[in-house]
Amino acid sequence: MHMEISRCFPWLSRHRRKQDGFKTLPDDVVMDVLSRLEVDQLGHAKRVCRSWRALIGTAHFTRVHLQRASSVPVISPMFFDRKVGDRGFLFFPNWSSQVKKPIRGAKSPGFRYITTMCIWDLLGCCDGLLIFSAILPFSIYEIQNPVTQEEIVWEQDGSICGFFLQSLPNKYRLLSYRETPNGFLYHTGGLWPAAWKNVGMFPYRPREQETPSGVEGRLHWMVVGKEGMSTPCSHSIMVFSTRESKFCFMPHPGDSCPSSDGHSNMHLVEMKGRVYVYAIRDKLMLIWVLEDYASWHWVKKCDIDLERDFNQHPASESVTSYSDYKGMQLIDSQDGELLLFWPHRGFFRYNLRSRTITQVMLGLSRYGMMSRVVVAEFKSSLVSLKDLQ
Amino acid sequence: MSSSPPPSSAAASPSCPKKMIALRSSDGETFEIEEAAALQSKTLENMIDEDCAGTPIPLPNVTGKILAKVVEFCSKHAEPGVDDESLRAWDAEFVNVEQATVFDYILAANFLEIPTLLNLTCNVVADMIRGKTPDEIRKFFNIKSIFSPEEEEEVRRENHWAFE
């Protein structure tokens, strides 16, 4: 016999039954809440119920989530003793010296037989998609999303130097160049056989093993000419507008370089959404920030006296000349501190106010063999490689 | 002899009181809010522009209990000279309420288009989700999940992500 519970137990109906609050919210608000979750939390959220799973699976959600995400530098160390098949590994520098585990995706199998024949280089990152090139054999590339574990490997003519999202249409595009007798010919195109578009012929190309700095829809590189010859200072930085598919060549900040290869020790770096240039001159690291793109206005951020400030640290005991500072790299900035990489010695935090340095122990071995690092700005994202079509 | 000019209602003189807007909740309660505070809500801003002056603005989607708190929030955020840290502490206290109320705040902030309140409350709910397993999330929010066994398996297979 079925009887209504509330009639048998009238006191029960007076309890306010706990409601599913989410049912009262419109979809776009649920999306707002879920887009604030980190990527691994989203894995859990997808298993909660059908509607959450459906929402999180949409391309729109991926975009909203991506817009909220902040980027962190991801580092690919280069070792002297690189060997074929050495994917190396990628890691996030953790400022507090806790060991941060490497990204799993960097070790994923992919096309095993190709992988073992190659040495892979990190070329860059866009919206959480990492792009690599293989040194041997030439012209093999891989894109992967280490979060979703998707990856794709393909062969391609030319050298890819950029990977970006073209807003109209909403498609990911590659930028590549090929050397010709008259200069370097640049093209943009997609992964699958979409028509590649010629975007110009120029006497310059990006320096090797340096990722572009991408900010506000523009990619920036330091460039060199044919055979790696230095460019005039007025044309030392190449900027590509992803919106207009156009290049321009701009001068680097600071004075013109006195010698012919003067700005070979000048580098671009993207930190916290802005473009910086740093240069090692004798024992100083000079740092500029691009304040305004339209007027190409650079502002000197600081000069670091490397000899004076690093002198106190045991790592500088092995310093014999100023050239030991030459390969120092600026990686990231946070709360008034800079993260620097010193070849063969490791990672250091430099406090701009107190001008003190602290070594950051990242639980890595083989610092002695680490000659430089390649850095890209990474965001954990759910962008699917299917979106590359 | 010249007569004194008529009082200008638009003139801001020191003795002129701040303009108050009247709001009416779904259950008939009336609340007064300073114009500066009301402008925190894009919905109210549009209504004020349309010059629905005089009569209280009816808000059929918001109860008196919640509207009182929303008025309190907007007034606090329109206050001059409050430093960031104490405002953040005040916000933390403001959302230190039971779950159902947080959702009511979200609905009100969404309807009234108050970005600061929406951001605050959505963050609170995201924090409630963070760190929980799917089961814990369902229990916490009383969400009914009706995955078929095949769907469960598919979802489990899909979700092998993580920086493990």
Straight-line distance between termini of chain A = 61 Å
Tally of helical segments of chain B: 8
Structural classification of chain A: mainly beta
CATH topology of the largest domain in chain A: Neuraminidase
Low-confidence stretches of chain A: 98-116
| CATH homologous group name of the largest domain in chain A | Kelch-type beta propeller
Mean pLDDT of chain A: 83
Described by strand count, sense and barrel closure, the largest sheet of chain A is:
5 strands, antiparallel
- Order of strands in the sheet with the most strands of chain B? 2-1-3
Shape of chain A: globular
As a percent range, the share of helical residues of chain A equals 10-25%
Radius of gyration of chain A over all CA atoms, rounded: 25 Å
Reported for the largest beta sheet of chain B, the result is:
3 strands, mixed
Q: Which two chains form the greatest contact, residue counts included?
A: A-B, 35 and 38 residues
Overall form of chain B: elongated
SSE class of chain B: mainly alpha
Strand content of chain A: 35-45%
Parts with pLDDT < 50 across at least 5 consecutive residues of chain B: 7-15
Number of distinct helices of chain A:
7
Radius of gyration of chain B: 22 Å
Protein name (chain A): F-box domain-containing protein
Organism (chain A): Eucalyptus grandis
InterPro entries (chain A): F-box-assoc_dom_typ3 (IPR013187), F-box-like_dom_sf (IPR036047), F-box_dom (IPR001810), SCF_F-box_component (IPR050796)
Pfam family, one (chain A): F-box-like
